[in-house]
Specification:
Blueprint lengths: L1 H14 L1 H15 L4 H7 L7 E5 L2 E5 L1 E2 L3 E6 L21 H18 L2 E6 L15 H9 L4 E5 L13 E4 L14
Parallel strand pairs: 4-5, 5-6, 6-7
Antiparallel strand pairs: 1-2, 3-4
């Protein structure tokens, strides 16, 4: 019975790849599994996730509003997996595939005149997943007054081949200075 079900599912999946991708995306969104950084950012921004159509493909975006998309880019957007995943975990996509899909989303945002904010993992505290205070004022300013284009926050984007083509790469902003000169 199990072999028959597996064969039927494989046949349906092969005959309906778009419907299969949509079904997987829906179940992924319904699962509620988010990265620690996405959960930390959700404390500041309570926007929904959504799938964005990029040509014939669909791309999951972490936070979506009418004029702004926010994507939290973790380790696998910058580096290849070091080791094979455990047998029960789904295999990671090769780095080239992930970066191709990232570029696809960037191009779609530029085409639509959307502000796409990409946040590298270095913008978040490793222990809590909360956005570092140094990035928070910049992000809030971008949300209040969105500027169309692709904005990549974090030095890791300098290593991405797609980032040099039409993306604004921002390094960590300098810490706020508090000069308290006493005049007597």
């Amino acid at each position: 019975i199990q072999a028959s079900r597996a064969a039927n599912l494989k046949r349906w999946r092969d005959e309906n790849p778009e419907k299969f991708r949509e079904a997987v995306a829906k179940s992924t969104m319904a699962s509620g599994k988010r990265s620690k950084n996405e959960c930390g950012l959700r404390a500041l921004i309570d926007w929904p996730q959504a799938q964005v159509r990029c040509g014939t493909e669909r791309k999951q975006v972490d936070f979506v509003s009418e004029k702004v998309w926010i994507e939290v880019d973790g380790y696998y957007h910058f580096f290849s997996p070091k080791r094979r995943p455990a047998p029960r975990k789904r295999p990671q996509r090769p780095l080239e595939n992930v970066q191709t899909r990232d570029e696809m989303l960037n191009a779609e945002a530029r085409r639509r005149g959307i502000t796409l904010i990409r946040l590298a993992g270095s913008c978040f505290h490793t222990s809590t997943g909360r956005l570092r205070l140094i990035w928070e004022p910049w992000l809030m300013a971008m949300l209040r007054s969105p500027t169309p284009g692709v904005w990549c926050a974090g030095a890791l984007y300098e290593s991405c081949p797609w980032a040099s083509g039409g993306c604004t790469i921002l390094r960590s902003p300098p810490p706020p200075t508090t000069s308290s000169s006493r005049t007597e």
